[in-house]
Amino acid sequence: MANIWVIFKRELAGYFTTPIAYIFIMIFIFLSGIFTFYIGNFFQRGQADLLPFFSFHPWLYLFLIPALAMRLWAEERKGGTIELLLTMPITMPEAVLGKYLAAWAFTGIALSLTFPVWITVNFLGDPDNGVIFAGYIGSMLMAGAFLAIGSCISAITRNQVIAFVVSAVICLLFVLSGFPLVLDFFSIWAPEFIVSAISSFSFLTHFDAISKGVIDLRDIVYFISLIAFWLFINAILIEYKKAD
Amino acid sequence: MGVMVEVSHLKKTFGSFIAVNDISFSVNKGEVLGFLGPNGAGKSTTMKMITGFLTPDTGTIIVGNDNIAENPVAVKARIGYLPEGAPLYSDMTPESFLHFIAEIRGLRGAEKSRRVAEIIDKVNLGAVVNKPIETLSKGFKRRVGLAQAILHDPEVLILDEPTDGLDPNQKHEVRALIKDMAAEKAIILSTHILEEVDAVCSRAIIIANGQLVADGTPASLQARSPIHNSVEITLRTTTPEPINQALEQIANVKTVEKIDTREGCVTFRVYPSGENAPITDISHLARDKNWDVENLHVVHGRLDDVFRTITTQQAS
Question: In total, how many domains does chain B have?
Fold first, then answer.
């Protein structure tokens, strides 16, 4: 545990010693504002909720989270510091978790800085704050799942651009897996239960439920197990590809 | 006394390439073991296995009393490691970086601050502790790398080419630092600078094509040189032939070779027939015959030549 905390601190501080943190936060807030107020028609809808705010999060995360995750392991590989880190008296799960949790906490910081939107909607109307809170929880969980994918993909390459593109594509598949485009591809050859399994893998399905205020244990289990799965693969990939 | 590192029958392959093939050796406390070998011989791979970065295909590594296969964290805690090229988190400052290393090595509070301050002082980083590592010169970066390796006062120190790319003064500093610590640690360092072996190592191992081809003190490796204990004599003469013959008549001389002629001087190399260099006999002869001797000395043989002979034999 102590080692996870040490790695977590270094990693999180690392975001703030470079301009990455500030640029990321600025773009995140700027885009979520645009999505909410212009594309989401926040004002015209005349409803006191943050549905337009949250409904664009999957698309926002689609390219912002891989950008955040791409450096996690690819940078360690490129700089050779992976050798330094993994010859310290720590275990592989500690290294993977420490770095991952730092990136997740950073996303949390960025997400929490959207609080003016929450204040605005309370100022303008009388929203159900429980639903909004659930939306934030759901958004955080979804960001965690995107990050776990990004961290895992980042572990297989020393090239951050490759890490970014590949994890964005995989994230896109997870977002779209409830969409006909993806399902048609599988329904041609795969049995029905696989197709419905794939559609149940979609981020959108699970996120929509939570962001409407319905915190179902199954949705939470879905995101948590997805995170655990990708981080597990992440650790295995590093273990087997250390020498490259 | 006090075997700190015990490596036996280590083997590692990458695909069809055999990087390390059945290497065994041990290092005692107080020893500085030099790893020699051409590039790609398997030095770094061996070090990466001892430090727990790579897992060997077969073979065992025991550091202190811990087997790395059973208790990797305990082994890593005993070792200080400077990887090749001294990789560092370049966006950190030496100070924050060393605090990070100290914490991950389990140091906390006052003890941590004391150790970090001590190390910064020991490797002379005082002037740059608050500058980002990426802006530091190569010499300073290497010192930060060394600092993180010795921060927790490890029993075993493994340094992969610690002086590579440094200028002569910096090399000297690093070697002095290593020598300083030699008595209470077991140190393994790889290098392809042979003078370094002479300067700091108490023992040397030569690796070629993944195999251990020589293991001994630097002096005993030197003794493998074909010119070891031969005598070089330079004298001013225009008629070298009679001198050559006279040298060959000496009792314990095997052969005489004329190796150089310039500016009225001739240099002969005289090979002994036994163990000892025939320098006394030659100097007596020179005095008796009244030769005009410019230079007379025993050749110990160069490690470079031994290294080349051994490693190229291996290849062919």
Answer: 2
DSSP B132-191: -GGGS-HHHHHHHHHHHHHTT--SEEEEESTTTT--HHHHHHHHHHHHHHGGGSEEEEE-
Asked if A243 and B14 come within 8 Å (Cβ–Cβ), the reply is yes
Q: Which of B181, B203, B222 is the last residue of a domain?
A: B222
pLDDT digits (tens, 9 = 90+) for A29-69: 999 888 888 777 777 777 777 888 888 888 899 989 999 99
Residue type for A158, please? R
**Mean pLDDT value across residues B268-288:** 84
Give the residues across from B186 on adjacent strands: B156
A86 with B52: Cβ contact below 8 A: yes
Token reading at B3: 């075997």
- Yes or no: say if B66 and B18 are a contact pair by the CB < 8 Å rule: no
Backbone angles phi, psi at B61, to 5 degrees: -130, 125
Q: Is the same domain home to B44 and B171?
A: yes
pLDDT of amino acid B189:
93
Residues B248, B185 within the same domain: no
Kindly state whether B18 is in contact with chain A, defined as any CB-CB distance less than 8 angstroms: no
pTM: 0.86
- CB-CB under 8 Å, A89 with B106: yes
